[in-house]
Each structure stands twice: as structure tokens, then as C-alpha cells.
Amino acid sequence: MTVKTTRKTFDPFAILKAKELIKLLARSVPVQQATKIMMDDIASDIIKIGNLTRNKERFVKRRQRLIGPNGSTLKAIELLTECYVLVQGNTVSAVGSHKGLKQVRRIVEDCMNNVHPVYNIKILMIKRELSRDDELKSENWDRFLPKFKKKNQKQKKTARKEKKPYTPFPPLPPQSKVDKQLESGEYFLSERGKSKRSVHEKKEAAAQKSARKRQERAKDYIPPPAEKRQKKESVPRDMEDMKNSIRKKVKERAKSSSSSRGANDYLTPKNKAKKKSTNPTE
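Now predict its structure.
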């Protein structure tokens, strides 16, 4: 494809504009939008996003994030930047003013570097509102713009598989049903013998199951372990120990008997009689 001028061309810069027009048409940009490039105040920009991420799955997710659900994010970018944006394959084509193209490139590159386009859209909306205010036009807008902090999410640690020792021989294949029958000898039995064996195995399994249930029922009737009684103090067997113990007991009894006596026990019978005669009631 070649681009040439004719005698009717009055602007030599139209050759470069035509070159950009062909590029946009090759990127599947509609003709109505691509022909706007011929105007003086409109330019185009083709942003390559294929090399910004290595992982293909991550690239597809971030490209879809740029488009948004039903193209809502892309439509918001177009309204705020006043540019036509088309995401096609590994490139993003944009047509609009130089200021808008700069904003589109920033949003696209941030999106492919894992920054959601909603943050940039919010900043553009705030700037748009501030530019309409006559008092705040000449002021610094940093105090009004939001500052988003980066949050490092903890990634799940995948458990590393331990490397098995290298063996040149392949693993043994799993045993088939016929191999198991050959090992047990069931393969050589007749149909009658096989049926007898299956009945015998079923009976054994039923007997084991019933015995297990019987043991579980018997657990409720097992008495708790009896507490061990403390042994009484051993009686001294030596003669000297016995004597000492007897003496202690005698002394204790003497003390207890002396403490239990009252004052009347120590009076003589004569004194008792005098006390009786002095009583006026008798």
C-alpha cells in the first residue's frame, strides 16, 4: 500500500496523517473514527500491551479488567478523556486530543501493571469537577486527589513435593482382578468352590461385626476401677517401741481423767455433809 500526493493537496503533512490512518484501519478501527485523524487537533496512539506481562492468563485478566463488564470501564475512559479507545489483541488503539491520549496511555499501562483503572477514573472525575470551578483553577489539586495505598496480599504458600529418589525402572503396574485371583488361588477353583468361599467370607465378616458390636455393648456394663485404700500404719513390733507406745497411752489417759474431774471430786465426805446441813431448805 502506497500513499501519494496529488495536485489538489495543499497540506504536505497529510502524508503522515494518511500513514496513521492506514495503521488505524489495520487495527480494526471503524472508518468514521479513523478519518478524524486527518483533523489538525486530533492525533492517534497505538499502545502495545503484549510485552508488559509474561503470564498469558494474567494478561487476559488485566485486559478484560480494562474493558470492564459490558465495556463499562472503557466507556468511562472514553467519556473522561474524550478519546476513542479500542482494545484489539495485543494493542490498544486511541484517537483523540494529545492531552487525552496521554491520559489513556497512563491508564492502560497502570492497568497492565496491576493497578485497577477505577482509581485513575476517580482521579480524572475529581480533576474534571475542579477544572470547572473558577476559584480552584489556578490552585494545586494534590490535597483533593485521593492517595491510594498499596496492599501486599499474602500469597498462599504451596506445599513443595519431596523429590523421590531417581530409579531408572518404571513403577509396577497395578494388579488386575485376575492377578489377585491367581495369588489367592481362587482362579483355579470351580464355580461351586468359589460360591462356598464367598459364603464363608461373608460369614466371617458377619461374625467379626457381631463380635465388635458385642464388645461395644459390654463397655457400658464394665464397673469403674476401684480406688486403692490407704494402708494403715504398721504396728511396731519391737519391744521397746511397744513399751513407749503403752507409756504414752497411759499418760494421755491420766491427763484426760485429771482434766475431767471437777472441784467437788476433791472434797472429803465430811465437807459434803456440812454443806448439806447448812442448806436452809432441808
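Residues 57 and 178 are 47 Å apart (CA to CA).
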